[in-house]
Amino acid sequence: MRSDEGWYLDDGGTLVVDGFVSFADGVPWQSIAEQIRAVRVQRGAQVERLDRLFAGCRHLTAVDGMENLTCLGGAGADDASEMFAGCSKLRRIDLSAFDTSRVRSAWGMFQDCRELREVVLPAQGFPELREAGGMFRGCRSLLSFDFAALGAPNLEDASDFFRMCTWLDEVSFADARTGRLVTAERMFYGCCNLERITGVDGLQTGRIENLSGMFRFCARLSQLDCALWDTASVREANFLFSGCSSLSQLDVSMWRMPRLQAARGMFSSTPIDRVDLTGWGAHELTDTSYMFDSCASLREVVFGAMDLSGVLRAQSMFDGCTELERIAHEGRGMQNVRNAARLFFGCKSLEHVPGGFVDLALAEDAYQAREGCPAPLP
To answer: What is the pLDDT of residues 261-271, one digit of tens each?
Structure first.
């Protein structure tokens, strides 16, 4: 199959891009994506856009000559979304000389590249990159990543960045510039073999609003140096550490979270034995449901003077905390809670709850709120 439109597919299944390629009707080789085994970009090759350029080429194993590819400009040069999405046989790609100086979105750029093990990133990085949600989502063969090499000081969205990278073992944030990051939601979700995150203590987090699910199901992560994170802008932290079944020690005592609204399942199913929330000052908090659900080793939670009067949903907050012995709280309690079902369900070691910590007078659902818990409640 040949074409006079700047590209052709040779007899061996190599897509040769050797001239100007128009995208008036979408990616012109999309209909033959199943036949493409390799890509070779010749000098002088030009395309109108980058998004979904090689998406769906699931038999693609090699890409050569990316340094020869030029995107003519306009919005097409800004967007590299899903550029290689679904290239499930691609193991390595060299983008070291590829021009990404104008790329603002790399959403899902390598999504579901299941055998991808190595990406040589552009030497100049992605200086204008704003959105990289799901960039490596589903790259289950990726073993390590140096975030500094991304070269994206303007990055705002890193949600789902490594989601379900199930063989990812190590990530480095050393020297990475993340000061403009707004969301890291589900960034490492499902990275069940992740053991080391170096430089995470220096991560610039001052603008982050959403941390929900960031480390959810990182089952082998045993250490996380996040004590000095600036969390002043965080609004949502749902299931942040949920399922981190090796994370027995976690220091969040120095966090300041004045804007936090939702902490649903934040520590659920972790083996932590003590949590100190003294400095949080989360006076906008409305949802603490499942916050410590199934924390079977938890013995003490220190709330300090945190104002919990805005909490409306607290169902299963301590459900299954069988070793919980002490709750320390001196501020305004959950006096307006509407859902308190299974609040202290199974807390068989808890014999005392601070006066005023919770008032069930307005609760619409308090089903089994203290089932199996000896501590008296109002």
So the answer is: 999 999 999 99
**10 Å Cβ neighbour count for 2?**
9
Q: Which residue's entry shows tokens 């919990």?
A: 308
Compute the distance between CA of residue 218 and CA of residue 355 in angstroms, rounded to an integer: 36
* Letter string b/e over residues 69-108, b meaning 16 or more CB atoms within 10 A of that residue's CB: bebeeeebbbbbbbbbbbbbebeebbbeebebebbbbbbb
End-to-end CA distance of the chain: 78
Predicted confidence (pLDDT) per residue in 223-267, tens digit: 999 999 999 999 999 999 999 999 999 999 999 999 999 999 999
**pLDDT band at residue 43 under the 50/70/90 scheme:** very high
- Please give the distance of CA 170 from its chain centroid, rounded to a whole number: 15
| Helix/strand/coil percent split, the chain, to 5 | 5, 15, 80
Report which of 283, 276, 292 is spatially closest to residue 342, judged by C-alpha positions.
292
